[in-house]
From TrEMBL:
<dbReference type="GO" id="GO:0005524">
    <property type="term" value="F:ATP binding"/>
</dbReference>
<dbReference type="GO" id="GO:0005737">
    <property type="term" value="C:cytoplasm"/>
</dbReference>
<keyword id="KW-0067">ATP-binding</keyword>
<dbReference type="InterPro" id="IPR003136">
    <property type="entry name" value="Cytidylate_kin"/>
</dbReference>
<keyword id="KW-0418">Kinase</keyword>
<feature type="binding site">
    <location>
        <begin position="21"/>
        <end position="29"/>
    </location>
    <ligand>
        <name>ATP</name>
    </ligand>
</feature>
<dbReference type="InterPro" id="IPR011994">
    <property type="entry name" value="Cytidylate_kinase_dom"/>
</dbReference>
<dbReference type="GO" id="GO:0006220">
    <property type="term" value="P:pyrimidine nucleotide metabolic process"/>
</dbReference>
<keyword id="KW-0808">Transferase</keyword>
<dbReference type="GO" id="GO:0036430">
    <property type="term" value="F:CMP kinase activity"/>
</dbReference>
<comment type="similarity">
    <text>Belongs to the cytidylate kinase family. Type 1 subfamily.</text>
</comment>
<dbReference type="GO" id="GO:0036431">
    <property type="term" value="F:dCMP kinase activity"/>
</dbReference>
<protein>
    <recommendedName>
        <fullName>Cytidylate kinase</fullName>
        <ecNumber>2.7.4.25</ecNumber>
    </recommendedName>
</protein>
<keyword id="KW-0963">Cytoplasm</keyword>
<dbReference type="Pfam" id="PF02224">
    <property type="entry name" value="Cytidylate_kin"/>
</dbReference>
<dbReference type="InterPro" id="IPR027417">
    <property type="entry name" value="P-loop_NTPase"/>
</dbReference>
<feature type="domain" description="Cytidylate kinase">
    <location>
        <begin position="17"/>
        <end position="206"/>
    </location>
</feature>
Length: 220
């Protein structure tokens, strides 16, 4: 990895770093790089919801059906998280729908906490700092403008050979933001003590450098 930095001097055993924010803000890339640089495990918690939604789509079920969604969440296996079809508009919509169901979030909460507490970890999602690990010593909330996030998502889709209309990508991204921010259970919002990072004008290297500085400052 270019630009990798040595870990802070303090012991990181059991330390959890929460990285939250909306889709395509760059939080996943940052979280993975932070985990690698700090020698911590990494978990993209969004994959849990995407895999749950994908199970329901495979069954022809409605992702908004609470009973079916909870059953799908409790049946998840590690193999589900490695599926190649967990990205894209359909998976995005299904993930947002199941994430709004309290029983689904409860089913996945212990799984996430067990993962983070085993040895320490960097977790990215939408409610890591507010619900999953409110006691995390480092919480980042990563964002970017709607237009920049939609551009990134469109480029990602095009890179995977998926044809997409940029205007539709922007509309779907805003719709998901609204659903994630307005849900009654664990809405997407910065924790009160989260460090905010706007990546609108930052490339991957600059975003990582900014995140690394914030993490070092908070860890001491």
């Amino acid at each position: 990895m270019s630009g990798a930095q040595p870990a802070p001097a303090r012991s990181l055993a059991g330390v959890v770093i929460a990285v939250d924010g909306p889709a395509a803000a760059g939080k996943g890339t940052l979280a993975r790089r932070l985990a690698e640089s700090l020698g911590l495990s990494y978990l993209d918690t969004g994959l849990l919801y995407r895999a749950t939604g994908r199970r329901l789509l495979d069954e022809g079920a409605d992702p908004a059906d609470p009973a079916r969604a909870e059953a799908a969440a409790r049946a998840l296996t590690p193999e589900d998280l490695r599926r190649p079809d967990l990205r894209g508009p359909a998976a995005d919509r299904a993930a947002s729908a199941v994430a709004a169901i309290p029983a689904v979030r409860a089913a996945l909460l212990d799984w996430q906490r067990d993962f983070g507490r085993t040895h320490g970890a960097v977790l990215d999602g939408r409610d890591i700092g507010t619900v999953v690990f409110p006691e995390a010593p480092v919480k980042l909330f990563v964002t970017a403008s709607d237009e920049e996030r939609a551009r990134r998502r469109w480029l990602e889709l095009r890179g995977r050979g998926v044809e997409a209309d940029p205007a539709q990508v922007l509309a779907e991204l805003r719709a998901r933001d609204a659903q994630d921010a307005s849900r009654a259970t664990a809405p997407m919002k910065p924790a009160g003590d989260a460090l905010l990072l706007d990546t609108t004008a930052l490339d991957a290297e600059a975003a990582f450098a900014a995140a690394w500085a914030l993490v070092r400052e908070r860890l001491g």
